[in-house]
Amino acid sequence: MDQLPKRPANYVPLSPVGFLPRANAVYGDRTSVIYGRVRFTWSQTYTRCRRLASALLSLGVRRGDVVSVLAPNVPAMYEMHFGVPMAGAVLNTINTRLDAGAVATILRHSAAKLLFVDYEYTRLAGDALRILAGSDGAVPLVAVIDDLDAPTGARLGELEYEALLAHGDPDAELPALTDEWDAVTLNYTSGTTSAPKGVVYSHRGAYLSTTSLLLQWGVGTEPVYLWTLPMFHCNGWTFTWGMAARGGVNVCIRDTRPADIYRAIARHRVTHMCCAPVVFSILLDGDAAGRHHLEAPVHVLTGGAPPPAALLERVERIGFRVTHAYGLTEATGPALACEWRDQWDRLPHPERARLKARQGVSVLSLADADVKDAETMASVPRDGKTVGEIVLRGSSVMKGYLNNPKANEEAFRGGWFLTGDVGVVHEDGYIEIKDRSKDVIISGGENICSKEVEEVLFRHPAVADAAVVAMPHPRWGETPCAFVVARDRDAGVSEEDVLAFCGKRMARFMVPKKVVLVDALPRNGLGKVEKVKLREAARKLTPATVQTQKPTKGKTTTSTVGGRRDEHPVVAHIMAVSRL
Ligand SMILES: Nc1ncnc2c1ncn2[C@@H]1O[C@H](COP(=O)(O)OP(=O)(O)OP(=O)(O)O)[C@@H](O)[C@H]1O
After folding, report:
1. 162: Cβ contacts below 8 Å, ≥ 6 apart
2. Helices (DSSP H) in 248-296: which residue ranges?
3. Does this entry carry the keyword Ligase (predicted)?
4. 191 lines ligand 1 (CB under 6 A)
5. Cβ 297 vs Cβ 445: under 8 Å
6. Under a CB-based contact definition with an 8 Å cutoff, are residues 334 and 216 in contact?
7. How close is the Cα of 478 to the center of ligand 1, in Å?
8. Closest ligand 1 atom to the C-alpha of 524?
9. Is ligand 1 within 6 A of the CB of residue 327?
10. Beta-strand relationship, 159-160 and 141-145
């Protein structure tokens, strides 16, 4: 048997880029992309991507060069997921919500050769390029992407995307992929816990992740996919390539305001979308007036942050069918999915939501996922109680961090990739994340997972949003401090009320020693709560200096949501940091 060699007929490097020529051959006349009044078929998308690859080659882009893009979910952004690797280059999608300094850092670190900039981001890009020029970083060539539906004429340098495509030759010979381990994309982590790191995906890893996620989510042929998740986030959790594999329709929208989302769902009969849990609040807000009705269920894959069970329950009640996944940039997006069991359908809504809020089991492209004691690397028992670090192993794990041997050394250990997340394994084998290891609160020697306290806060009927962080405590070292956003600004909610609610539902040591009412939680570009900022605010709030205020004659004197909360010095500080 060993004498049977690999041949070109039976051994072809795996690459998600190959889904595009297949889509051209199989779904050629079907709609591929919709953006405003613009529509393309799969044949047109294929031709446009070939033109892009040929134009890049004529600009001198070569195998392994980095091509960066700063753009929202527009057709050009979609096409780059194929056109850039078709030229042998590596696509680097940059988070559009970063500031100029962070964009410059990414351009310098990745040594980008070319930068595509959507017309709305020319100012941000211009500032970043000036920073780069003022340092020792090589400045990339720049090409602007104008609005395809309503061109504005905006320019930043000489090059423009549509003009480049017009010059590209769709019949030009393109370099063949010879090694599936070649890099396909470079994505920077969100920087929630430390400086962003450059994560490199291989063609092989991206191919396997794409196919496994389509299976995991049960995506059949002809899905209509609404781009609410930024494509810059782990390449849209691989569904950029996945839609080509399924001959789906990519509905691209620039903004994700509730009206835009509901309009697109109704107009294009959307069947699927992905989003961070924070978008659920947007969807529920949009539905507050009861104006939006889903004519058919929309399947939503959510992840990126813990979705509180109460939020899952509410969003499912208005017609969204939620699949919950857990992942990270380093795992090409989703690594665990809460695979649903039919028998759970018979359970009451809150129980179903509780089960669905668990992060789940490994996706098929992983060889294994486990929770281990970080010191001994022994697996924790399946008791839903013993916490350890979530670790992963398999083909969807990144090649590694670009130019960062120290981070690679720390992340890969004993044949596993260490996620930096703390979790438990339940009896049925489902993993549940409890916290990021950096967010665990250690109070008098007890570990308190902030997510457990947050879950309770979310069950309070007057609470719309909540986050819990460590606050220094003279006796216990640290105690939980809760930051809470009220659902109804006028009705108000008091600190005492929240504390009493928690007191009845959790062990005493877990009850926050302070509740701060705020208008909004500071969130980063991907909707993740910036706990670093909250911790910084909580540090100034030790229980020794801030007394819990007591109600006077039936009227609460604590800061209420309807009141002028920014008069409270601590809240003023929070509002200041959340504006940073
Ligand atoms: N379903 C989920 N439930 C809870 N947390 C989640 C879920 N999905 C993702 N996360 C959190 O998001 C993290 C991955 O986020 P991402 O890769 O975007 O960058 P980041 O980890 O926030 O940034 P950095 O590593 O630079 O701090 C996971 O490690 C986990 O903490």
Report:
1. 146, 148
2. 258-268, 278-286
3. yes
4. yes
5. no
6. yes
7. 23
8. 22
9. yes
10. parallel
Q: 354: which 2 tokens?
A: 């509780």
Which of 189, 311, 363 to probe ligand 1 with, by most ligand atoms within 8 A of CB? 189
d(CA 575, CA 521): 9
Query: Element (H or E) spanning 424, and its range?
Result: strand 416-425
Distance CA 352, CA 356 (A): 6
Report yes or no: 517 and 571 within 8 Å, Cβ to Cβ. yes
Q: How far is the CA of 7 from the centre of ligand 1 (A)?
A: 40
Ligand 1 touching residue 24 (CB < 6 A): no
Token digits of residue 262: 């509901």
Please give the residue that has the higher pLDDT: either 476 or 454. Answer: 454
- How far, rounded to the nearest angstrom, does the alpha carbon of residue 544 sit from its chain's CA centroid? 38
- Regarding the beta carbon of 185 and ligand 1, being less than 6 Å apart is answered no
Atom of ligand 1 nearest to the CA of 193: 27
CA 161 to CA 165: how far, in whole Å?
6
- In this structure, is the dihedral angle defined by the CA atoms of residues 448, 452, 453 and 454, taken in order, positive or negative? positive
Q: What pTM, to 2 d.p., does this model score? A: 0.85
Q: What is the pLDDT of residues 426-473, one digit of tens each?
A: 999 999 999 888 888 988 878 888 988 998 999 998 898 999 999 988
Examine the pLDDT at 199 and tell me if it is beyond 60: yes
How many A from CA of 304 to the centre of ligand 1?
A: 5
ipTM of the complex: 0.96
Residues in the chain, how many?
580
**Ligand 1 atom at minimal distance to the Cα of residue 419:** 29
- The angle that helices 100-110 and 122-134 make with each other, rounded to 10 degrees, is 60
User: Does any ligand 1 atom lie closer than 6 A to the CB of residue 436?
Assistant: yes
> Ligand 1 pocket test: which of 322, 329, 417, 532 has the largest number of ligand atoms within 8 Å of its C-beta?
329
- The structure tokens listed for 496 are 């005492």
Buried b (16+ CB within 10 A) or exposed e, 39-70: ebbbbbbbbbbbbbbbbbbebebeeebbbbbb
Over its C-alpha atoms, the chain yields an Rg (Å, rounded) of 25
* Cα separation, 418 vs 391, whole angstroms: 5
Q: Which residue has the tokens 């996706």?
A: 363
Ligand 1 mean position to 528 CA, how many Å? 8
CA angle 94/86/108 to nearest 5° reads 30
Query: From residue 34, how far is each of 53, 74, 75, 264 by CA, in Å?
Result: 22, 9, 8, 10
Position 559 scores a pLDDT of: 29
DSSP-assigned letter for residue 6: -
Helix (H, G, I), strand (E, B) or coil at 210: helix
Cβ of 193 closer than 6 Å to ligand 1, yes or no, is yes
Smallest Cα–Cα separation from 440: which of 226, 195, 193, 275?
A: 193
Q: What is the rounded distance in angstroms from the CA atom of residue 465 to the CA atom of residue 311? A: 10
**DSSP-based three-state secondary structure for 207:** helix
Q: What is the C-alpha end-to-end distance of the chain, expressed in Å?
A: 63
Between the CA of 328 and the centroid of ligand 1 the distance, in Å, is: 5
Is residue 64 within 8 A of residue 185, CB to CB? The reply is no
Which amino acid is residue 400, in one-letter code? G
Yes or no: say if 263 and 34 are a contact pair by the CB < 8 Å rule.
no
CA 172 to chain centre: 36
At 542, list the tokens. Answer: 């030790």
Read off the pLDDT of each residue in 313-323 and give the average, rounded to a whole number.
90
Report which protein residue has its CA nearest ligand 1's atom 14: 328
Q: Is the CB of 190 under 6 A from ligand 1?
A: yes
